User: Fold Asp-tRNA(Asn)/Glu-tRNA(Gln) amidotransferase GatCAB subunit A from Streptomyces albireticuli.
Amino acid sequence: MRPYELTVAEAAEAVRTRRLSPVELVDSVLERIEHVEPRLRAFTTVTAGPARRAARRAEDEIAGGFLRGPLHGIPAGLKDLIDVAGTATTASSRVRADHRAEADSTVAARLTAAGAAFVGKTHTHEFAYGLTTPQTGNAWDLGRVAGGSSGGSAVAVAAGAATFALGTDTGGSIRVPASLNGVVGLKPTYGLVPRYGVTSLSWSLDHVGPLTRTVEDAALVLAALAGHDPRDPASVAAPAVDYRPGPGTDLTGLRVGVPRNYYFDRVDPEVEASVRRAIERLEELGARAVEVEIPMTRYIQATQWGLMVPEASAYHERTLRAVPDLYAADVRVLLEAGELMTAGDYLRAQRARTLMRQAWLEMLEDVDVIAAPTVPLTAVKAGRSSVTWGDGEVESVSDAYVRLSAPADITGVPALTVPVGRDTAGMPIGMQLMGKPFGDATVLRVGHAYELTGTALGLAPAA
Assistant:
């Protein structure tokens, strides 16, 4: 096995036992980037020099007996919304062409303290305002969308061009591309991971989290990221938790909520079949399936848009007036539309979110996690704009991809996507596991138990 093929946990063990040096690992990943990047276009910039310097520093520290932990010397990609001092944060936009970050974001600083080596900044749908990341190709089929807005991060991890990566999730932007590219994506509980130094899409919905090849890896990265930072007003001082899942698969006594409404409505039959088989697998591991009713479903889309759109427009107000032509047409239309929304619309969305969160907390009293499809269909062909469901309903691709992921952003609950198979076209299918607020460790435990049954997809063919 070549070093770039290793998971975080495998690479960490090889580095710890001196069977692999961080320099060899980083060089392997950089060579992989050089090989696949011309086709995939996952990165806005590759930071080979800083990555190699970090690898040499890690090698020297480890040789001197100083091991920072499981991320020491591990190659990482960062979504290009995340500030790294002295490096451009372009948000994949011409608006940011001349930008350079003056200081590290909290998450970048924490990964640096953990010894990670940043191999590059990854593409996002412009300013994270979209669900396809059009400049990046899917790691399983270049002719299909990567998913968004953390499409570059998902593709890099799926192709072995980063051992792990960070993304952001406002309406599903970690989980959607993770599902479409066959990797693991974790949206932590709102407030668990600080967002200081991360370009915002929507202050009240934004989350930062890891994309990895395994659930165990996601837990290792989350442990380095979580913790209070007063510079982020939403950051919370959560109790210290060991996020690493145990080695076993026994889920005896765990209650898995299976939605009787919403999450299996207008879902591709192959996606539904794969997710239901995965839920049956959880039952075989000892879990008990419990039917649940998802509350307030008719308000989900309106609440998501009612919060995100005006907040995004407020964030971009100055540059939208100064350089409107530098925005892509799809993003500019959304930003301009947001300026037409009234304060009353926004306040009603906030009130609906409060009621929805309360209803979800009541529903989660009866289960430990909820299992459902991550997205209702696999990666579509690039350029496809809509999908027609069996009942004749026509839905835009973006609305379809955000429909099942938005509730976890609105309510702030932790949500994990894990690969559960592929459709007849060979495209990955993901299952979403959602838990109680700050129940991230439970969600990871369930996902890891499922993963140990042998369902990981491995590296994508990178087209």
Q: What stands out?
A: The mean pLDDT is 96. The chain has one domain: 1-463.
